[in-house]
Design brief:
Elements (H helix, E strand, L loop, with lengths): L2 H21 L9 E9 L2 E2 L7 E38 L2 E4 L2 E8 L2 E4 L3 E7 L2 E4 L3 E7 L2 E4 L3 E7 L2 E4 L3 E7 L2 E4 L3 E7 L2 E4 L3 E7 L2 E4 L3 E7 L2 E13 L2 E32 L4 E9 L4 E8 L3 E9 L10 E10 L6 E13 L11 E14 L4 E14 L5 E14 L1
Parallel strand pairs: 1-3, 3-4, 3-5, 4-6, 5-7, 6-8, 7-9, 8-10, 9-11, 10-12, 11-13, 12-14, 13-15, 14-16, 15-17, 16-18, 17-19, 18-20, 19-20, 20-21
Antiparallel strand pairs: 1-2, 22-23, 22-29, 23-24, 24-25, 25-26, 26-27, 27-28, 28-29
Length: about 400
């Protein structure tokens, strides 16, 4: 080791030791101590961390300060008692007992006991005890005890204990304890405990505890506990009341709906779910479930032997949607349009297409024999077509009959 290098190290350590000893002396009564904090470790620094000190520049390994008004840079981390105004950079963690105004960057975590206003970047977790305003980004989770306003980006979670507004993005879930206003998008879940104004966009499900004004768009399901004013798009859509549009495989409202439901099954508490058993000249043996509202109904089911019984096994799945006139002396007249997907299985080896689809129209006449059983007969017209080319495989008159239970 050269003499010049040894001299430099000795000089730095001497200055640090001198500054540390000088910092132990109490300032005059009523006077605030401020200045530069050079720190090797807690208690080994050029500035005393008491209730009167204020730091304008902090450089060190691990620092403990009363208050930072300026720039702080630490190899490991910094602990600040009453607040930060400025920039705080640490290799591992920043812990601030008060509020932050400015920029905070840490390799692992940023923790503020009270409010945050500005920009917070953490490798893993950002935690703010009270309010947060600005941009907060972390590799795992952002947690705000009270309100949040601005942009929250979390690798897994963003959590606001009370109201939230702005743009929230998380790989797993966004949670707001009360109201949310803005856009909440996540890989799995978005939850607002009370009202939401804006949009929830998720891969799995969106839940709003009370009223929603805006859009819920999810891969699996959307739930609005109160009134939906806007649109729900998902496989399953549930709302207490709705004014707008529900688009999905299964749509449900509990009390009142004003708008449009577009789905395979549209239901409410008055919807009657009925079992249908019937035979016909298209698919020979069939079973289906009918979801019947006051006028409109949908039917989903399946049938066997689209081809003749003498051929190898074939089957189909079908969906029908229609309108029924009010019952008159136990008689009901209805009409519907249907789509049928047909699988011919091993018949494809004998010149029959492997799969087909059919479009069908029917008129149905139903007679109610009792509270839980009805008889019906249907007549109509349909044609099956190739999926692979614009051509008809078969077409003709449809005739069916069977029973309806429950």
């Amino acid at each position: 080791m050269s003499i010049r290098f040894q001299t430099s190290i000795t000089t730095i350590l001497s200055l640090l030791l001198a500054g540390t000893l000088f910092a132990q002396a109490r300032p005059a009564a009523g006077r605030t101590q401020g200045g530069i904090n050079l720190s090797l470790w807690k208690g080994i620094s050029t500035q005393r961390a008491d209730t009167t000190s204020r730091t304008y520049l902090n450089i060190g390994v691990l620092s403990a300060m009363n208050r930072l008004d300026g720039l702080g840079m630490n190899l490991i981390g910094a602990v600040t008692r009453t607040g930060v105004n400025g920039v705080q950079l640490s290799g591992l963690a920043n812990v601030n007992g008060g509020s932050l105004r400015g920029l905070q960057v840490a390799g692992i975590t940023n923790i503020n006991g009270h409010d945050l206003a500005g920009l917070s970047l953490a490798g893993l977790i950002s935690i703010n005890g009270n309010k947060a305003q600005g941009v907060i980004a972390s590799g795992l989770a952002n947690i705000t005890g009270d309100e949040s306003r601005g942009v929250l980006l979390g690798g897994l979670l963003t959590v606001a204990g009370e109201d939230a507004a702005g743009f929230h993005f998380a790989g797993l879930a966004n949670l707001a304890g009360k109201d949310f206003c803005g856009i909440s998008t996540s890989g799995l879940l978005s939850i607002a405990g009370n009202d939401l104004r804006g949009m929830q966009l998720t891969g799995l499900g969106s839940i709003t505890g009370s009223d929603l004004t805006g859009v819920q768009l999810s891969g699996l399901g959307n739930v609005t506990g109160g009134t939906l004013t806007g649109m729900q798009i998902g496989a399953v859509n549930l709302a207490g009341r709705a004014k707008g549009v529900q688009i999905g495989l299964f749509n449900y409202y509990k009390e009142d709906f004003k708008g449009i439901q577009l789905g395979l099954v549209n239901a409410n508490p008055q919807t009657r779910t009925q079992l249908m058993l019937f035979g016909g000249n298209a698919t020979k043996l069939n079973i289906g479930a009918r979801f019947k509202n006051r006028l409109f109904y949908t039917i989903v089911g399946g049938g066997t032997h689209y081809l003749d019984f003498g051929d190898r096994f074939s089957a189909a799945l079908f969906y029908r949607a229609g309108l029924a006139l009010p019952e008159w002396k136990r008689w009901t007249l209805s009409g519907d349009l249907g789509y049928q997907h047909i699988e011919t299985f091993k018949n494809k080896d004998y010149g029959v297409p492997a799969r087909l689809y059919a479009l069908q129209a029917r008129i149905n006449l139903e007679y109610r024999m009792g509270k839980r059983i009805s008889l019906f007969a249907s007549g109509g017209y349909g044609g099956s077509r190739y999926y692979t080319r614009n051509a008809t495989f078969d077409k003709g008159v449809l005739a069916e009959g069977g029973i309806i239970l429950f």
